[in-house]
Write a structure and sequence with these properties.
Rossmann fold; two-stranded antiparallel sheet; amino-acid biosynthesis (chains A, B); Dehydroquinate synthase-like, alpha domain; nucleotide binding (chains A, B); alpha/beta; 14 helices; about 375 residues; EC 4.2.3.4 (chains A, B); disordered N terminus; 8-stranded mixed sheet; 2 domains; homodimer
Chain lengths: ~375, ~375
């Protein structure tokens, strides 16, 4: 369902570029991966969307680092644009900031054929993407993800949205970008903790249905963290894996739910610490959640216990937490976690839906998990 | 592209029901038209969406008249629901009220498979529909339109949205309902002015591409205004006409723009009076706008002047204004109107797009209209 191609020699010199095509018929689009892409953004956008004007949406932190470079690249390609700079952080994914971004786009008199360009991590991508989905009932959208998490996960697949006081990502739209530019050189400024958080989502693709990719990550963990070719290739495989799932089930009526491996437990953990990033960021919650999903699957007799141990060992080697007890200041209770699980939006008609697994690379959607079994399992895990 | 069928004998007795199918593949849906449908709402919804829960969204005026009846009908069919009652009026189509409705839907813990039911006119339908499009990235949506304008226009076709301080309907989504229940008996409580405003949109379908329908309206104006079979049939033809346009171009990339016949001038007039409904409601703006579109087309040599006169005579007979000078307290200027036209969202890449016509039932999209010609035409019209 996916094609890939070496991207050929480019003005950036000999730096290798990789390409993944997200295959959605008339709405198909390219993900370009490689160092220096931010400086080629204008040319790549103009080649696909000639004549457009644009609004760059970014946050103060990322803006300080990269906004000028992106702006120069757009100007060089003749793309007239405005800049919308927001406060950094998860709180920006609010109705209030959405209204602000929408107003700024309209103030610039952009039209349906023009583009919103998200320069930042998941928060900016989700918010800017949602704004582009609803201004004039849908504008063009381009992603320039600046974190590993955004490059391998949130910038691919068209989920956009904001948070509600009642939960994360409860308001949004499916709106596919026209282009994703993943500049891998930008990852060099990430903290190790932030890189590891994105790495958890890469591991997830191996665990869902690509056991050979998991083997590769196990074999070359140092190479992927070190940058260079191994990192670029791991990002490419991750995007390809996500693109394949999205192409098969764009609006999550079925198999796309596999991408939630580790996320039901992970979201419950994030909620239980009040989304306090000092204690737990999303990728860390997913890391613990994936280990729990494997252990729970092992308890239920689906998954070999050795596979669960292997997953935990690899994530720990990557510097990620793998037990609930590893969360700082975490005397969490079963009740808190069960409440988080029940509120998770993957609940359908009151039954618990979990992504379980038969082993590494063999995840499946289970629609009818017994809440009592989850509760008993969590009670034991809290004592680990 | 459309099918229709007599709806057969129903528990409501012998009142005739009509059905129009909006043909959008997997997202096709029924529009049911007839007296007493509000009392059958529960049964009709359950037959299509078994097991759902719902949120009824309405305004204080409509709620006082019909909320209890709809609620009783849902309860009788076993549909658990909450009620969300908003202030009446165009100001309700705001980000603030959208956030309020979204929060109330989430507070009721409705899921993606559950439904938002809009009970009201265009404001409620647009706002509730938009909320249903973005809560959990898309819930089910049912329309129970209570005005003629909503029954023949805004409830059909999936355009949802809110206003921005920078203009009307600038923020929204395409989100098709699962069912539209047009209870024609509810129209009996409309004021003559409100009925006439909806009637302008009915005439529009004749003018776009159904000259025989225009003939029918001319021949039986009294019957349509009087209620009964002629009114039901005219509503059915109108819904069928709109459904055909929508099925051919759901997201307005081309021919759907024909539905804007009379609307570019009409929106400019509404904007020029500051959306003061005491001076001009939407349907009245459209009535004047359609006359202007025919006269302008005649000036440009496209349309026989007799056709323009015939359109004006029929709309005047229906009690609608047909000259700019008919707007109360209206010393409007060409500059104001041109500003409104330039801001209209049908502007693409700076050129003026108008719906022009070669005569009754022969409208077409003109993408490259000269602003100077429009300006000169409006100057003459202001002197009429």
């Amino acid at each position: 369902m996916k094609r890939e191609a070496a991207f050929g020699a480019e003005p950036q010199g000999t730096a290798p570029r990789r390409r993944v095509v997200v295959d959605l018929g008339a709405r198909s689009y390219d993900i370009l991966i490689g160092p220096g892409l931010i400086d080629a953004a204008g040319a790549e956008i103009v080649a696909r969307l000639p004549g457009i004007r644009a609004a760059i949406v970014t946050d103060e932190t990322v803006g300080r680092l990269y906004l000028t470079r992106l702006s120069v690249a757009l100007r060089a390609a003749g793309i007239e644009h405005v800049e919308i700079v927001l406060p950094a952080g998860e709180k920006t994914k609010s109705f209030e900031q959405l209204a602000h971004v929408v107003d700024a786009i309209l103030a610039a008199r952009l039209e349906r054929g023009d583009a919103v360009i998200a320069l930042g991590g998941g928060v900016i991508g989700d918010l800017a993407g949602f704004a582009s989905a609803i201004v004039r009932r849908g504008m063009r959208f381009v992603q320039v993800p600046t974190t590993l998490l955004a490059q391998v996960d949130s910038s691919v697949g068209g989920k956009t949205g904001i948070n509600s006081p009642r939960g994360k990502n409860l308001v949004g739209a499916f709106h596919q970008p026209s282009l994703v530019l993943a500049d891998t050189a930008l990852l060099d400024t990430l903290s190790p903790r932030e890189f590891a958080a994105g790495y958890a989502e890469m591991v997830k693709y191996g665990l869902i249905d690509r056991p050979a990719f998991f083997d590769m990550l196990e074999a070359d963990l140092g190479g992927v963290f070190g940058g260079g070719a191994a990192r670029g290739e791991a990002i490419r495989v991750s995007c390809e894996a996500k693109a394949a799932v999205v192409a098969a089930d764009e609006e999550e009526h079925g198999s796309r739910a596999l991408l939630n491996l580790g996320h039901t437990f992970g979201h419950a953990l994030e909620a239980a610490v009040g989304y306090d990033a000092a204690r737990l960021v999303h990728g860390e919650g997913v890391a613990i959640g994936m280990v729990l999903a494997h252990r729970f699957s092992a308890e239920l007799g689906f998954c070999p216990p050795e596979d669960a141990d292997r997953v935990a060992a690899h994530l720990a080697a990557a510097g990620l937490p793998v037990r609930i007890g590893a969360i700082p200041d975490a005397p969490l209770t079963v009740e808190e976690l069960m409440r988080g699980i029940a509120q998770d939006k993957k609940v359908e008609k009151g039954r618990l839906t979990f992504i379980l697994t038969r082993g590494i690379g063999r995840a499946f959607v289970a629609n009818d998990v017994d809440p009592a079994a989850v509760e008993a399992f969590l009670a034991r895990e809290l004592d680990r």
